[in-house]
Amino acid sequence: MAKDLYAILGVSKDATDAEIKKAFRRKARELHPDVNKAPDAEDRFKELNEAYDVLSDANKRAQYDRFGTIPGAAGGPTGGYNVDFEDIFGGGFGGMGDIFSSFFGGAAGGRATVRKEGRDMGVGLRLTLEEVAAGAKKEIVYDRLAPCEVCNGSGKAEGGKEIDCPDCHGRGRVVTVQHTFLGDMQTASMCSTCGGTGKVIDKPCEECEGQGRIPDRQHVTVEVPAGIREGQQLRVTGFGEAGMHGARPGDLIVTCRIQPHEFFEREGDNLHARANVSFIQATLGAEIEIDGIFHDEKVMVRVPEGCQNEQVIRVKGMGMPRLKSTERGDMYVHITVLIPKKVTKKQRELLEKVAEEFGEDVAAPRSPLQKLRDAFN
Prior knowledge:
Blueprint: H1 5-9, H2 17-31, H3 41-55, H4 58-67, H5 85-89, H6 96-100, E1 121-127, H7 129-134, E2 136-147, E3 162-164, E4 173-180, E5 183-190, E6 199-201, E7 213-224, E8 233-236, E9 252-258, E10 265-267, E11 270-278, H8 279-284, E12 286-291, E13 298-303, E14 312-315, E15 331-338, H9 345-357, H10 368-376
Parallel strand pairs: 1-9, 11-15
Antiparallel strand pairs: 2-7, 3-6, 4-5, 8-9, 10-11, 12-13, 14-15
Helix pairs in contact: 2-3
């Protein structure tokens, strides 16, 4: 049976965008594997993100409401561009703990020291070679800890203020004394109430529980410059993890991943392509036209007289644009000389005259009777 995405989020079918977002945040806190130890927590958390991905997008939600299928799933139309969890969190679902670790108070192994500044986040961006050549604007969709809209990232409810932690008195550490037969032993450890900051909020925001940030889905448009190479990164300032209580946010680091091309192979700023010519064109020389990397671009390739099979012809300035430059690399065209498998009687006569002119011996044509004998042997 098809999944009921509304039931997964716990909202009605006429829920508003704000209600859907609020339900997602609440469920994310409840189901995240760092805090939920149920065997199926990871699967349910993935399911929750899938439901939110559809219902938070007006077009995908309308399609789901009409057809009852999840956009992009088998049997259903594909949705828009998106970044999967492996791209967002660096491979494997387990990496998701990193983005939410501060929000949930650390991973399962114990409470980590609270980091007030937001951390950088990384996503992978898939690009075609044509997009790299021309430059492109791409929308990226990813999950992050975003500033809380209710308290504007402060973590404070109305009338709330930041005060010294009552447990550690603003020191960020608590001292415990243990009485032993060797005498009193004194140890200091991080205060669990304030997470080592020495400060707490007397009236925390109910939406973000005093964090000043909440799990949310972010849409950001990235400008990809022409000529960028595989693995190069773009930095989008301020779109990483939001800081606590309005502290400095991290940045979004976008790693470019260029898909293989069916016709061109890139080597730095140069392009390699393959072109077919007849044996007559290879012998006499010719000018042939092939497609360039830009839309409707044509490249004229001058095949020299006596061109050999697998010979490479260089066409200057018809390769990839150089990054931050008006210049382009070169194109290297690898020639394949095609030999016809069959020729007509007239063509054979002409070729035999050419062979005679070159002083070459050729096989005599077979008679119809010989062809029949060969067919039965």
